[in-house]
Known about the structure:
Helices cover 40% and strands 15% of the residues. The protein is of the alpha/beta class.
Amino acid sequence: xxxxxxxxxxxxxxxxxxxxxxxxxxLADVAALAGVSxxxxxxxxxxxxxxxxxxxxxxxxxxxRLGYVANGAARALAMRKTRTVGALVPRFGGSSFPTLVQALxxxxxxxxxxxxxxxxDHARAQDPSILRSLIERGVDAVALLGADQSPSIFSQxxxxxxxxxxxxxxxxxxxxxVGFDEGAAAALVIDNLAxxxxxxxxxxxxxxxxxxxxxxxxxxxxxxxxxxxxxxxxDALVETNYGFAEGFExxxxxLQRRSPVTAVVCGNDxxxxxxxxxxxxxxxxxxxxxxxxxxxxxxxxxxxxxxxxTVRVPIRAMGEVAARYLIERLSGQMPQxxxxxxxxxxxxxxxxxxxxxxxxxxxxxxxxxxx
Length: 371
């Protein structure tokens, strides 16, 4: 006796909640459930800016209900696009860069893009093979950290006609930057300290030789100190790697040198946290004897002892704006370069007025120059 197979189940029947026929859900299945054409489904998944938000939401809901998974490889071949954005961010040890990358990824994902992150150590960040590996994986665009890139980086991107943006950078002749004014950030700190009577300033910062952001931050500090007629004490100037331990050791060096500084500015909150710990261990009250200020406003800054005065820089906004710029470029637009993002001084308990009495022997000789 021959067993007959049941007739093929129409798409409409499969939508009713009955078990689906074997095999992957197709674009046509999603279109039938959403009540649109297959072309509309394709645009909803690949070029959402071309359709209304209501239609896109209906298509996405239908795709999710059916468990539809797009054939990314086939779509990439057809469109010559992978909807993947590469990010080249040197290996990070603190919370600033992960926050930046997370904001970039979240904003890209909201528009259907996937972030492919490469995080080499700083020594290899300029290696052309790092970027080449991203290009070979078919990224549609690239986000770089900083404008201080080797010529080969820009050459590769331009020769492959890959849109790119430089995050945490103020300006560059090579392309579009998303960042803030380090000089303005430094001015906020120095003006606050100067207004409270501080004249001798120390600085614990990153290594300026191979770190663009450290150079810009230190340069901004020098300009602000000169503008206010303050003294940046040579015996309280330390360049080091960014980290808690490095900040602790740097402050110990300053204390051992018996520097007359009444305020120390740190290049980031990690250095400041270590510096505060060294002062606490030495029995030096903050801010009664020494004020400490910093940059970034990391999430732990309010919980230090004492809570840290620091410049809040737009870490998350840089990632979001960079993503928006790349998305617009990939949709065929030519957006205007983003404006510099604002910074804000968050005054907490680690800074205060200059000590009323400082031993005369510790004062720097000579008049203080005021501009």
